[in-house]
Amino acid sequence: MGVLRNRSRWVDVIGWRVGLILLISLVAFAAGLFTLTKDARDQWNELASASRDNNGWNVAQTEVEFLRAMNAVTIAGSKENPDPELLSEVRLRFDVFYSRMVTIRDSSTLAPARNTELSQNLITRVLRV
Questions:
Q1: What is the value of pTM for the model shown?
Q2: Mean pLDDT throughout 93-104?
Q3: How many C-beta atoms lie closer than 10 Å to residue 72's C-beta?
């Protein structure tokens, strides 16, 4: 009978320790899972923000390319007989600007920006050339 009583104490002590280890492991697992979930959510938000930033950059870069094309036209137009190099620069600048306008026209993420009548008219007028 004394052996059974000692054995029962050992089972109680071992069971208590195993329960404590399992509880600590469960808390550590939950903390790790929370951290991973938070990191994934933060990265997802960064990716969503990157898309908006990219859209802004595309629109701004289109404006830059428009100004470069206009500058090339102004320089070439100021010469009585523009040399082929100036005309080549005008073609290059217009081609780059045109390709940016095509990107704006075809980009699904820029669709909200194209929903205004002014935007649609500008895109149509540029791409009709």
A1: 0.56
A2: 91
A3: 20
